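Shipment paperwork, digital attachment
Item: protein structure file
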Amino acid sequence: MSKIFHVTLTQGRADTFYIEANTKSDVLTFLSSVSTAVISNIKEVVFSKEYDINYIPQTIENNTSHKSVKAIALSKTYSKIFEFFNIKDSVTNQDIIKQLKQLMILNEPIIDIASITFYK
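Attachment content:
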């Protein structure tokens, strides 16, 4: 089964497009043989509404939600501000902390959350 890849080529400007192939190396081989542009990125699409890849339609709830949440996360040597939008009212600080600790900052696990702010 073929896969869809998001490709970025640069040559004075950046052009992005989607291409279907079996592997990343097939995409790389094809582009190297036909294009003079520099291949900046080749990313496999693992979720897409447009291409119906692992997409499950959901009904949009008309209830209130937090407009956004900002969190400052810390790894051993880095920090990063995460901002998320349309957060469910039922989500708590502990939920955010638990989920953020599963992510990484520049290949380092998140070890602490300095602050979390909810905006209505």
